[in-house]
TrEMBL record:
Source taxonomy: Bacteria, Pseudomonadati, Bacteroidota, Cytophagia, Cytophagales
Pfam families: Peptidase_M1
Principal EC category: hydrolase
Record's protein name: Aminopeptidase N
Region forming the signal peptide: 1-22
EC numbers, comma separated: 3.4.11.2
GO process annotations (BP): peptide catabolic process; proteolysis
Reaction catalysed by this enzyme: Release of an N-terminal amino acid, Xaa-|-Yaa- from a peptide, amide or arylamide. Xaa is preferably Ala, but may be most amino acids including Pro (slow action). When a terminal hydrophobic residue is followed by a prolyl residue, the two may be released as an intact Xaa-Pro dipeptide
Length: 656
């Protein structure tokens, strides 16, 4: 999906045709009996949308950069899944149809309510059909024309996720009916280029125009079909993943034809590194026999959109490159079964940004910031990741859920598996099993359990199908060399208990000794004990922001006498370790003040609310201990951004 400008709190043809047909028959097995009844009763046009399988689309359109007006025709080829008298397609009412033909003859049709009903097709089950729709108009959505006088930019482009493909082409907006082949002929005035799906077969020079012939031969979901048109400057390079047996993979880039953007396009050299990385982690780039690339657009709403084999981008930001390229695996190659499961696209693509930082840049500051901001963004909503009502764009692409919570849940899954070989093998198997197909959350869960031989029902119930996150209150005390922890878990929006198999807790001594332990809490209130050979002065829950949780309180007032005779749990020592040279910060609510202790010099502190607004800023330039007056702040969750003399750290906290 498009990478929305939803800054989360500050930043907040014909191959596989037999397989495709078999796949669609399987998808229809639960509804085929209903489809067979279509000819036996009075039907609505919407029902006939599901009576056939799209096989090929041939697009012939005249486009330019002066407006979003289009004119031309589209040929649809398909096969009937049942006996059906009519064929129904979706096309927006603002587009005017001049005629429709089939087998060289004009066909009767109706066009209303964004539906075309092509009459008297009289198809038998398994019968192939071909029909051509001639139309023109200015789409209200989905196809846009933008200009910038300052930069001398004029560009026309499509962006149709989730429900706007019908605004520029006749289509069936059904994620499960991926089209085997899309062949496109875009005719433009001379001097313009068109970026589109698949391979640029040829450019045909006419008297005053150029026809750009593109061919996509991999199954493609309706919303991923696209083009972008401008007087582009072309900048090409090549990737050679270790697992690729061919020569190299073309990375074809269309940037705006001015000095600023011709210089900026060199940033896409980063895409080569990312493609090589993702091919190693997820499996070979799925469209290696075609290409990957970028076309620029000029838009104030979207940052980027992962059109299959050619993402359309606002700029060449590294994070945006990493996100949209990851979608070629998560969204393009394997497409969600429906929009309820959008986290399978955006959760993995957003987390892939983190992987690019981790493996290519090894920037611990950026890694920490990524997790802190995503967690903070996730706190803004209590909704589940599985989208219960997926009828509107704002429901599907709720930033705090789809772009913040989803990648954090993917990170937690990796953290809980605690074995990168297993984690990435699951992803590779997922990509291979559902290559060119659709998958649901349950499909992914089943494969995950098969690969890891573990039951993840509770994880999916807690983190995918239900909303909210755990909140912790920790009380501790120490008796000589034994350290006691009383941990209470509550729910941010409900009563269910989150089973966290690995909750990291950092114990810090008076002389900066430290020990990281991991707790597996099995009930809402539980007591733990562990030997510690130093005097503990501070305790930090989830110091590296690996768990989506909030900390309500940490106190040193546990009555040891009241628990010494109770059954206590020993922490897991499998991952218990000291942290070398930790960058530490402790936030201690103290009446109306917030005490900040650090071994580094604290220069500036910014407190940000859940709307992403700075509500308190202070310049300190102090080490050891600083006091920040927070008495005027309302009770809420806040992100504390602390700038050191040698870096930055983000900590989430709750003011009661």
């Amino acid at each position: 999906m498009p990478n929305f400008k939803h800054n989360i709190a500050v930043l907040l043809f014909l191959i596989l045709s037999i397989n495709s047909y078999s796949q669609n028959n399987l998808k229809c097995k639960n509804t085929i009996n209903e489809l067979e009844k279509l000819s036996q009763r009075k039907n609505t046009p919407q029902e006939f949308l599901h009576g056939y399988d799209l096989r090929k689309m041939t697009i012939n359109l005249n486009v330019d950069t002066t407006s979003n007006f289009i004119e031309g025709h589209v040929t649809i080829e398909g096969i009937a899944l049942c006996k059906t008298p009519d064929i129904v397609l979706q096309l927006a009412d603002e587009l005017s149809i001049s005629k429709i033909t089939s087998e060289g003859k004009n066909k009767g049709f109706t066009h209303k309510d964004n539906l075309i009903t092509i009459n008297r097709m009289k198809l038998k089950k398994g019968e192939r059909f071909e029909t051509t729709i001639y139309y023109s108009g200015n789409p209200l959505h989905g196809l846009y024309n933008k200009k910038s006088e300052e930069e001398n930019i004029k560009v026309t482009y499509t962006v149709t996720e989730p429900f706007y493909a019908k605004n520029w082409i006749p289509i069936k907006e059904d994620l499960s009916d991926k089209i085997d082949t899309v062949e496109a002929f875009y005719t433009t005035p001379k001097g313009l280029k068109v970026g589109a799906n698949g391979v640029l077969v040829e450019t045909l020079e006419n008297n005053a125009s150029t026809t750009h012939h593109w061919l996509s031969s991999h199954p493609i979901a309706y919303y991923l079909i696209s083009f972008a048109c401008s007087d582009y400057y072309e900048y090409n390079l090549y990737a050679k993943p270790k697992s690729y047996n061919g020569d190299s993979i073309l990375i074809q880039n269309y940037t705006f034809n001015n000095d600023k953007w011709i210089e900026a396009v060199k940033q896409v050299d980063y895409t080569v590194e990312v493609m090589n990385l993702y091919s190693e982690l997820f499996g070979l780039y799925p469209f290696a026999d075609e290409k990957y690339g970028h076309s620029l657009w000029h838009d104030a709403t979207w940052s980027g959109m992962e059109h299959q084999t050619m993402s359309t981008m606002k700029n060449f930001n590294h994070g945006l490159q990493a996100h949209e390229l990851a979608h070629q695996w998560f969204g393009c190659n394997v497409t969600a079964s429906d929009w309820h499961n959008i986290w399978l696209h955006e959760g993995f693509a957003s987390y892939a940004e983190y992987l690019a930082l981790e493996f290519l840049e090894d920037d611990k500051k950026q890694l920490g910031n990524y997790k802190a901001y995503r967690q903070f963004g996730a706190f803004m909503s209590q909704n589940p990741i599985y989208i219960e009502t997926a009828e509107e764009q704002k429901q599907i692409f709720e930033g705090s859920i789809t772009y913040a919570k989803s990648p954090m849940v993917v990170h937690m899954l990796r953290f809980f598996i605690n074995n990168d070989d297993k984690f990435f093998n699951v992803i590779k198997s997922y990509q291979e099993k559902y290559k060119g197909k659709n998958a649901s959350t349950e499909d992914f869960k089943k494969l995950l359990e098969e690969e890891t031989t573990k039951d993840y029902s509770e994880f999916f119930n807690d983190w995918i199908y239900k909303g909210g996150f755990p909140e912790y209150a920790l009380n501790y005390s120490q008796n000589d060399s034994i350290f006691y922890i009383s941990l209470k878990q509550s729910h941010s929006s409900g009563n269910n208990f989150f089973d966290i198999p690995r909750l990291p807790v950092l114990l810090v001594g008076t002389n900066n000794e430290n020990l990281l332990i991991e707790l597996h809490q099995t009930k809402p209130n539980e007591t733990f004990q562990t030997p510690v050979d130093f005097k503990v002065d501070n305790v930090i829950i989830d110091p590296a922001n690996d768990i989506l949780c909030s900390v309500k309180s940490i106190e040193n007032s546990l009555n040891i006498d009241s628990i010494v005779h109770e059954k206590t749990t020993k922490p897991s020592h499998e991952n218990t370790r000291a942290i070398k040279n930790p960058q530490l910060i402790y936030l201690k609510p103290n009446g109306g003040n917030l005490t900040i202790e650090s071994e580094n010099i604290v220069k500036n502190v910014t407190v940000i609310n859940t709307n992403g607004e700075p509500v308190l800023e202070a310049s300190l330039n102090k080490d050891d201990k600083s006091e920040l007056n927070i008495s005027e702040l309302a009770s809420n969750i806040y992100l504390i951004v602390v700038e050191f003399d040698n870096g930055q750290r983000e900590i989430k906290t709750i003011k009661k």
